[in-house]
Amino acid sequence: MTIRPFTQPIYVTRPVFPPLKSFTQRLESVWSAAWLTNMGAQHQLLERALREHLRVAELSLFCNGTIALMVAAKALDLEGEVLTTPFTFAATPHSLEWNRLTPVFCDLDPQTCNLDPAAAEARVTERTSAILAVHVFGQPCDVDGLEALARRHGLKIIYDAAHAFGLEVDGRSIGQYGDITMYSFHATKLFHTAEGGALACTNRDLKQRIDQLKNFDIRNEETVGGLGLNGKMNEVQAALGLAVLEVLDEERTRRARIEDIYRQILAGVDGVILPPLNHRVTRKSLQYFPIRIVPEAYGRSRDTLHELMKEYNVITRKYFFPLCSQYPCYAGLPSANPMDLPVAHMIVNQCLTLPFYGALSDQDATRIAEMIGALRA
Ligand code: T4K
Q1: Rg over CA atoms, the chain
Q2: What is this structure's pTM?
Q3: Contact at 8 Å (CB) between 116 and 281?
């Protein structure tokens, strides 16, 4: 088969752009209210809309997901060590370090690529105060296993659901698990506010604490309680979010179609592992489409395929290479020893994230999947 290069680069994602008018109409309200930030009308509207959309009891908006994660750890008064995954974006362990907490990297479940509760339990010490788990690529963590682990050792759980907007397990929103769940609304996410994020929790007092912390820990006109920061989402971001929310169903339908195309074609390619289908997932996140390349069966390494596809103008991504435990700032930690993270080291060399966004046509998705088949050696 001859492989035809794309004339324009095909990126791993393209942001959702709602009709400009639905954004500018909301901006007119912002202008006439002369109110730009500090929990204005658009902020209130989006907070309520997302609370309903995500079916969570409490939600607090943020300027981005990283600051939200930092506030989550602070709001739970965590201390000492936090069990976490090395296979994630830099923001996950960085949010701990910014709180002077020590990330303790634990190995992964080879199916889901998420934190393995048994591997995490082996790393519990008297200094452990919490688990920070990531639903990587929108695959849910073993929420039951992690909850049991937390209960046995008196630990808090924060879920990083940056990739898991809209994900449901057993008919329950992913934001209802654990003590706090963080969402990212970065431009590259299914739902976005250009930059943005949120924390979901089940408890009114915790929501109030989070709201204080994201506003410098100001309690009233004359009192600053402690060490807060500025994590507020502004009115322009919130207005964009409201406009994006209106076209979300359309985007989800398109992505589900692209997922079908990829699954159908790639299922027949030896050496390509598709994202697992979990029967407990009652609503998918549709955020990423990561495949794994097994070189012995595919005939080429993931890195070679990544480079070859670039030659045809398909810009896939090696999320999340290298592991966070390999960053110079974490490599010296005892938990970063590669001998103790064998599954993570295997997965990080196999994963390749394919272009996945609503504006990708069926024909282009088909061409990309067939290209992966044709490049098999
Ligand atoms: N936890 C996890 C597990 C995360 O993955 C993330 C963020 C966070 C926490 C922190 O949340 P935030 O603080 O970001 O809210 C991107 C995103 O910047 C980042 O939000 C995301 N995870 C991470 C996985 O991906 P890059 O460096 O890969 O982005 P970039 O600029 O290379 O964009 C990817 C592709 O998207 C480009 O090749 C082209 C396209 N693109 C991008 C932008 C920004 C566009 O077409 N238009 C655009 O405006 O990090």
Answers
A1: 21
A2: 0.98
A3: no
Average pLDDT over residues 239-256: 98
Instruction: Report DSSP letters for 8-51, one per residue.
Output: S-B-S-------HHHHHHHHHHHHHHT--SSS-HHHHHHHHHHH
Question: How far, in Å, CA of 38 to CA of 10, rounded?
Answer: 38
Structure tokens belonging to residue 292: 């794994």
Query: 170: helix, coil or strand?
Result: coil
The answer, yes or no, to whether any atom of ligand 1 lies below 6 A from the CB of 12, is yes
Decide whether any atom of ligand 1 lies within 6 Å of the 17 Cβ. no
Per-residue pLDDT, averaged over 281-299, amounts to 98
102 CB less than 6 Å from ligand 1? no
Measure 12 CA to ligand 1 centroid, in angstroms.
Answer: 10
How large is the average pLDDT for residues 152-169?
98
Instruction: State whether the Cα torsion 76-81-84-88 is positive or negative.
Output: positive
What would the pLDDT profile of 88-128 be if each residue is shown by its tens digit?
Answer: 999 999 999 999 999 999 999 999 999 999 999 999 999 99
What does the angle CA 337 – CA 341 – CA 343 come to, to the nearest 5 degrees?
155
* CA atoms of 313 and 287, how far apart (whole Å): 22
Q: Please indicate whether residue 182, judged by its CB atom, sits closer than 6 Å to ligand 1.
A: no
- Parallel, antiparallel, or unpaired: how do β-strands 351-354 and 289-293 relate? antiparallel
Cα 15 to averaged position of ligand 1 atoms, centre (Å): 10
Q: Any idea what the Cα angle at residue 289 is, between residues 57 and 252, rounded to 5°?
A: 50
Give the closest residue to 168 by CA, choosing from 301, 85, 283.
283
Q: What does the pLDDT look like over 5-54, one tens digit per residue?
A: 999 999 999 999 999 999 999 999 999 999 999 999 999 999 999 999 99
Secondary structure element (H or E) that encloses residue 105, with its range: strand 102-105
Query: 99-108 burial, b if ≥16 CB within 10 A, otherwise e?
Result: bebbbbbbbb
Of all protein residues, the one whose alpha carbon is nearest to atom 37 of ligand 1 is 11
Tens-place pLDDT, residues 180-210: 999 999 999 999 999 999 999 999 999 999 9
Q: Give the model's pLDDT for residue 89.
A: 98
Dig out the tokens for 246 from the structure: 């209106």
Peptide bond into 216 cis (omega under 30): no
